Amino acid sequence: MEKKTVKYHIPQNGIYMYARTNSGKTELIVLNSTNAEQVVANDHYRMMTNDSKSGKELISGKKIDLTKNMTIGARQSLIIEL
């Protein structure tokens, strides 16, 4: 039987974040609900990344360094595969 989990983080400054795990694969979903670009401190999402140092943004294929702060554009969403 597959174990599926979802971890939610308390929204801060219009940034909503959750991580979902299915069959050993984890995706971090980040949503910016504001009209301004936001910088998200890595200590805000570190506990959701399962100590992963990097991930891949699924839409663009861009590598994301999870040891640094993350910049997310206005009204943007990211799906990062860890």
From TrEMBL:
Any one GO MF annotation of this record: lyase activity
Top-level taxon of origin: Bacteria
Naturally occurring in which organism (per UniProt): Phocaeicola sartorii
Pfam families cross-referenced by the UniProt entry: Cyc-maltodext_C (PF10438)
InterPro entries given in the database record: Cyclo-malto-dextrinase_C (IPR019492), Glyco_hydro_b (IPR013780)
Name used for this protein in its record: Alpha-amlyase
Domain Cyclo-malto-dextrinase C-terminal: 7-81
Record keywords, A-Z: Lyase
